[in-house]
Structure formats: structure tokens, C-alpha cells
Amino acid sequence: MTTNVDEHEIEKFSALASRWWDPQSEFKPLHDLNPVRVAYIDSQVDLTGKTVLDIGCGGGILTESLAKRAKQVKGIDMAKASLDVAQLHALSEQVDNIDYEHIRAEDLAEREPQQYDVICAMEMLEHVPDPQSIINAVRALLKPGGTVFFSTINRNPKSYLLAVLGAEYVLKLVPKGTHDYKKFIKPSELSSMARVAKLQCIDTKGMHYHPLFKTFDLGDNVDVNYLMTCKG
Length: 232
Description:
Number of helices: 8
Structural class: alpha/beta
Largest sheet: 8 strands, mixed
Distance between the termini: 25 Å
Strand order of the largest sheet: 3-2-1-4-5-8-6-7
């Protein structure tokens, strides 16, 4: 069985691990984006009393926000250095309802089937060799009737211009080489992969960056970054 892990991607994020919680670091876009992601999740599901899984949690920026709303949150990632940072930050903030683990989603699905009310896989599908394998694992991990949130980047000339050339080379929002255009996923492709895994897509929203104000907001245009909600 394929490991479904891109070691180059893991090394890339591991090298930056110490800067996860610096809002002026390479992770500034995630800090700016996080309130928008959380607001979208809140608009789709009430996390009170829920068990939540954050796949590809990195340094825990989204994970800690989820923990403030949910009963229990688990964050998993294949970059051990990022998880170490996440654990230390949660400890310093006295967030005690997060469990971090260095494990593949596919392996967790074998161990903990149908254990999570809500699952997030944000900004990670474009970093793995086989997104369908992740989505299948999400379906296995999800409780019946549970809710799933995906976010990724559309694949078209506009997304290449803005997410690669613009973000990496012009605005320098993220380090060069952060994104591989070939791994971007069209909304039609993501919804198709979700259907293969027997997930029903119920909502899609675009996330738009405003360079003048350095802020993100949500809208109907999904040409570049987008969020998708699915139900099990």
C-alpha cells in the first residue's frame, strides 16, 4: 500500500515548524485565513459537544480554534516537528482538549472508524500524492450523518497566476515552491472524489484575498481558493 506521503512536502513544512505561531512569518496567510475558515465552519455546524478531527493540522492554528468550540479535538500530521510545536503551544495556552498524533489518516481510519462528528482537511489535499485515499479515510472516520470540511485550490490559469506567481513571487505571501500547480484540484474533481467515497457535497464557497487590506473573505467565486462542506 502506498504511504500517500510526499516526503519533500514533509521536509518543507518541518523546516519551517518553529515559525508556525509567528503571525508575521511564512504562515501569516494561514493566520489571516483562519478566522474566515472558522466562521465558515460555524455557519455550517454547531461544534458544541462534538468530537472533531483536524487532518494535516500542522502547528495547530485551526486545531486550537476548533478546540475552543468542541468537546474534544484530535489533530494529526505527518510532520513531527510541526506537531511538537502544536503540542507546546496548546500547553502554553492551557488548551487541554486536544490530542495530537503523528499518524496517517488511512491508519487512523483503520483504528478509529466512525469516531468523529466533524472532520477538517484544510489546505492539505494539494500536498499529498493521492487525495482520494485521504477522502476515503475521512469517510471511514466519520460518524453517520457527520460533517466534513475540505479546502484546497482550484486548477486553472487564474489560480496559477494568483496562487503561484502572485502569492509566491510577487506578493511573497508564501515561500517559493509552496504550491505545485499540477496538484491543484478543481471543485468538480473534489466533489467527484467525495461522491466516490459516498459523501454528499452540500455547499461550496470561495476564499478571496484582498492584497490592499491583507484580508480574506468568503464569496461565491471559487476560481482560486475554496471551501467545501460534505455530509456523511
